Amino acid sequence: MESKYFFGIDGGGTHSRLAIVNEKGEIIAHAEAGSTNIYSVSKDEVFANLTLLLDTALNNAEGGRQGLEKKDLSAGCIGSAGLGRDEEQKIFRSFFDTLLGENIPVKLCTDAEILLCGGLDSTEGYCLIAGTGSIALGRSHNNVLVRSGGHGYMLGDEGGAAWIGKTAVARTLRSLENRDLPTDMLSAILEVSGLAQSSDLVRYVHHDASKAQVAKLAPAVTAAARAGDPLALDILCIGASELAILVKSVKNQSPWIQNQKLVLAGGVIEHDEIITRKLREILDSELPGLEVISPKGTALEGAVMLAINLLCH
């Protein structure tokens, strides 16, 4: 019987990873390259990075044969930011048709979907990601998805690092005008932003700062909350409540999902114990049937799982 090989790609805004596995799920090759997000770099760069990922991994494949060819691949999956909408998927479908031909199926999905599968070690269940942004996702074994959030910090992303940073700036300015809770965060916010005075924050947030720069303010909010700052604590408690609302939204949309497990992931979850503790308290109280877990596996493992699932189901 001819061996089958599958590839999974965990794509991102700055770097991406690929793994090739055999039919037993054993990893026989790895590769890394730059961004696969068409909103972070040009389409030509994305195509070049995808080509580099595949070529590098195929040339370095081990375990039974040295140097696989593209025609040896049975199926693949890429999960990446900037890949959730029809127009985006058309671009990537064209990429892979050019790279592999039209006969090798490739699942195209968001990075949240592969994180759900890898984190749960299952193709069904729930995930909540609170990193720079925030999104909740539910998935059934038969590939039906529901989602809530993920609209970017200008429109939402509540509880994510960029939202925490933007909210801290806005509410600190309010506090200076005696319109909010007292806070000592101003000096830390100015230091992280590289600014001299509070009035500089208006131009900084509206015109100069990127989403990533605003997100870098979040650790200062966490540090202030640990020290008992009332405004910082309130921001994090509201953030935790908003994250819980995302989870309740996907739960309410998907009564047909059988696996009642929720995996938590992302930088805010990993580094902000105040939000994570409050979030778990809310979920335990309001969704007692939902089991909250830490990730069992990685997003890359989730991509490989979905690639195998694409051919075998």
Q: How does the SSE layout of this entry go?
A:
Elements: E1 5-10, E2 16-22, E3 27-33, H1 43-59, E4 73-79, H2 86-100, E5 106-109, H3 111-120, E6 125-130, E7 134-139, E8 145-149, H4 161-176, H5 186-193, H6 200-208, H7 211-215, H8 218-226, H9 230-253, E9 261-265, H10 267-271, H11 273-286, E10 291-293, H12 299-312
Parallel strand pairs: 1-4, 4-5, 6-9, 9-10
Antiparallel strand pairs: 1-2, 2-3, 6-7, 7-8
Describe this structure in words.
- The chain folds into 2 domains: 5-121 and 297-312, ATPase, nucleotide binding domain (Nucleotidyltransferase, domain 5, 2-Layer Sandwich); 123-295, Nucleotidyltransferase, domain 5.
- The protein is 47% helix and 18% strand.
- The chain contains 12 helices and 10 strands.
- The chain has helices at 43-59, 86-100, 111-120, 161-176, 186-193, 200-208, 211-215, 218-226, 230-253, 267-271, 273-286, 299-312; strands at residues 5-10, 16-22, 27-33, 73-79, 106-109, 125-130, 134-139, 145-149, 261-265, 291-293.
- The strands form 2 sheets. It has a 5-stranded mixed β-sheet, sandwiched between helices. Strands 8-7-6-9-10 form a 5-stranded mixed β-sheet, sandwiched between helices.
- A hairpin with a 3-residue loop joins strand 6 (125-130) and strand 7 (134-139).
- The radius of gyration is 21 Å and the shape is globular.
Cα-based radius of gyration, to the nearest Å: 21 Å
Order of the strands making up the biggest sheet: 3-2-1-4-5
Strand residue content: 15-25%
The CATH superfamily of the largest domain is ATPase, nucleotide binding domain
The shape is: globular
Helix content: 40-55%
